[in-house]
Structure formats: structure tokens, C-alpha cells
Specification:
Number of helices: 1
CATH class: Mainly Beta
Radius of gyration: 13 Å
Order of helices and strands: HEEEEEE
Oligomer: single chain
Largest sheet: 5 strands, mixed, barrel
CATH architecture: Beta Barrel
Helix content: 10-25%
Strand content: 35-45%
CATH superfamily: NigD-like N-terminal OB domain
Distance between the termini: 29 Å
CATH topology: OB fold (Dihydrolipoamide Acetyltransferase, E2P)
Number of strands: 6
Length: 107
């Protein structure tokens, strides 16, 4: 558990690496795919969850008033959401308000 928290803190303090796991779509929406984890401790202190790429690098901080992100924890998940204006801050990742998520056979 401590190593997981330390990893999130270390990775969160690094610059966000953009990769082929996400692409901008119309109207400021973002599509991304990765593993969702609960955000426990971070240097930036926004979001309830994070989306990690296959290398364990944080792609986005996440929040949602429409989706129960806890359902997707530790699962490979595809999400759609909108960038939250004013972020990133404090060296953190981009911040997404998730409006749709799915996992399973259609990934």
C-alpha cells in the first residue's frame, strides 16, 4: 500500500506524458483508455481517481457526477469526458470530468 502511494506521488510530480492512449475529439471532449485507480495521495490534490497508461504513468486525474468510477477500479476502461477548465495545476495531470465509461469486450 505504501509503495502504491509513493508511486502515485512520484509519478504525479513528474510531467504528464501524452501518448497514443488518448485523442481529442469534437467539442473539447477527450477519449482515453487505461486502468482506473482511486487517487489516494497526490501533490496536486484534485480528482477522485486517475487513469494510468500501460506503463503506469498517470494520463488524467478524473472526477464524475454521472459515473460511479469505483466500479471501474483496476479494470482496463475506455472513458469519454470533458477537460475541466483551469487545470492542470501544481504539476499535476489534465483533469477530466468523465461522462461515459465502459470496459469489457468492446474495448
Amino acid at each position: 500500500m505504501r509503495s502504491k502511494v509513493a508511486l502515485y506521488f512520484l509519478v504525479g510530480s513528474m510531467a504528464v506524458t501524452r501518448c497514443s492512449f488518448f485523442s481529442p475529439v469534437e467539442h473539447g471532449e477527450i477519449e482515453a483508455e487505461g486502468i482506473i485507480e482511486v487517487l489516494e495521495v497526490s501533490a496536486w490534490m484534485y480528482g477522485t481517481h486517475i487513469l494510468l497508461n500501460d506503463d503506469g504513468i498517470i494520463m488524467y486525474a478524473l472526477r464524475s457526477s454521472e459515473i460511479d468510477l469505483d466500479y471501474y477500479v483496476a479494470k482496463r476502461t475506455k472513458i469519454e469526458g470533458n477537460l475541466v477548465p483551469g487545470y492542470p495545476v501544481d504539476g499535476g495531470p489534465l483533469y477530466l470530468d468523465v461522462v461515459y465509461a465502459w470496459t469489457g469486450g468492446d474495448l
